[in-house]
């Protein structure tokens, strides 16, 4: 059993079943979350005999970090080998006053976006809740061990995979990450990024609304379906409507990720439609100039084209930023993550 996959109430139950007081479960929850323990022997407020017993019953070993690479701007990639030998990636990104950790939710991805290398590798399996949480523990331990000055404050589910297609494990991970007696991440600092699985967005809205980002990439159905095959099932209009109804924390905006692909989705017609779709104060747009890669048939727009696209949206009252290139350009929509990691590190 992976204790990192258990919510607090489940740990309490487990300790009762072990014949221990339930508050021991709370102590262990505290240690394996915000104290990032990797051994029961660290848990000095537990009796020695209990620590030994727990060590015999459970393991707190983390998946192995087989590679850590840091870019000049401080962006750090972890290649993490799971128990079955599959490798996933997490990325620690320095921001002005904190770090953001970008975590994976699947091995590979079933969506197959045309501008994404993860999409080309196909889908292997969902990550377990424990594997999702382990990435956070690895990131936090790294920040502590390296004595980095900024706190790891944001978690974005933007790595490999489509988080909402691993819904139950994602939901459990979100609950563990937000629990005040554990990691205690505010919901607005947990961002779920999706290509727009509408029925799951509605479910998340009811179950556990967090910050939301949608990878739109095209304002027209036909173009979007060319770029994101699963979009066949969801129209742009329906997706935007569902997002408008999504409960937003303290009126924070929903992020619309838009990869700029030269000559594909950067013309005036696209900008105009995007401005119509997103009018109001619900959304903010994050433009992501595509980073060319030899295996992908797209080009990056010129700086003038990028700025003109942004200017058009800004002039129509749409809050629009251009993702700054930070060596790795790692803050891409999920799709570019792997492409950028590969081009930067290989
Ligand atoms: S862009 Fe995201 S959703 Fe699309 S294939 Fe890549 S990882 Fe999957």
Helix content: 25-40%
Broad structural category: alpha/beta
**Which regions have little confidence, pLDDT < 50, spanning 5+ residues?**
327-346
Q: Which small-molecule ligands are present, each listed once?
A: iron/sulfur cluster
Quaternary state of this entry equals single chain
Number of helices: 12
**CATH architectural group of the largest domain:** Alpha-Beta Barrel
Kindly state the number of beta strands: 12
Strand order of the largest sheet: 1-2-3-4-7-8-9-10-11-12
Task: Write down the overall mean pLDDT.
Answer: 92
Largest beta-sheet details: 10 strands, mixed
Indicate the proportion of strand residues: 15-25%
CATH topology (fold) name of the largest domain: TIM Barrel
Q: In angstroms, what is the radius of gyration? A: 21 Å
* Coarse shape: elongated
Count of discrete structural domains: 2
Structure description:
Helix content is about 35%, strand content about 20%. Strands 1-2-3-4-7-8-9-10-11-12 form a ten-stranded mixed beta sheet, sandwiched between helices. It has a two-stranded antiparallel ribbon with strand order 5-6. It starts with 7 loop residues before the first helix and ends with a helix. Strand 10 (about 255-260), helix 10 and strand 11 (about 285-290) form a beta-alpha-beta unit. The chain is an alpha/beta fold. It has two domains: about 5-55, Orthogonal Bundle (DNA polymerase, domain 1), CATH 1.10.150.530; about 65-345, Aldolase class I (TIM Barrel, Alpha-Beta Barrel). Helix 5 packs across helix 6. The site of iron/sulfur cluster (SF4) has 14 residues, from helix 4 and helix 12.
């Amino acid at each position: 059993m992976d204790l990192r996959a258990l919510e607090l109430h489940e740990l309490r139950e487990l300790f009762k079943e072990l014949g221990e007081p339930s508050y021991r479960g709370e102590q262990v929850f505290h240690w394996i979350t915000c104290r990032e323990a990797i051994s029961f022997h660290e848990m000095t407020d537990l009796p020695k005999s209990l620590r030994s017993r727990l060590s015999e019953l459970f393991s707190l070993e983390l998946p192995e970090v087989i590679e850590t690479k840091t870019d000049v701007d401080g962006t750090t990639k972890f290649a993490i080998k799971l128990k079955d030998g599959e490798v996933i990636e997490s990325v620690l990104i320095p921001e002005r006053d904190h770090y953001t950790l970008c975590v994976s939710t699947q091995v590979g991805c079933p969506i197959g976006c045309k501008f994404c290398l993860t999409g080309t590798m196909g889908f292997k399996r969902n990550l377990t809740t424990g594997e999702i949480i382990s990435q956070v523990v690895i990131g936090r331990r790294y920040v502590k061990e390296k004595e980095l000055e900024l706190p790891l404050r944001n978690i974005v589910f933007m790595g490999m995979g489509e988080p909402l297609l691993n819904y139950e494990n994602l939901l459990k991970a979100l609950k563990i990450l937000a629990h005040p007696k554990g990691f205690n991440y505010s919901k607005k600092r947990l961002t779920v990024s999706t290509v727009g699985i509408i029925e799951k967005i509605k479910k998340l809205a009811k179950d556990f609304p967090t910050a939301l980002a949608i990878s739109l990439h095209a304002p027209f159905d036909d173009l979007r379906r060319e770029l994101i095959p699963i979009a066949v099932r969801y129209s742009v209009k329906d997706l935007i409507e569902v997002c408008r109804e999504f409960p937003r924390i303290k009126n924070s905006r929903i992020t619309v990720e838009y990869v700029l692909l030269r000559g594909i989705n950067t013309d005036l017609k696209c900008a105009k439609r995007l401005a119509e779709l997103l009018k109001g104060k619900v959304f903010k747009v994050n433009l992501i100039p595509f980073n060319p890669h030899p295996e992908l048939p797209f080009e990056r727009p010129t700086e003038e084209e990028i700025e003109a696209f942004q200017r058009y949206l800004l002039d129509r009252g749409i809050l629009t930023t251009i993702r700054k290139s930070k060596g790795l350009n790692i803050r891409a929509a999920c799709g570019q993550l792997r492409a950028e990691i590969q081009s930067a590190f290989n």
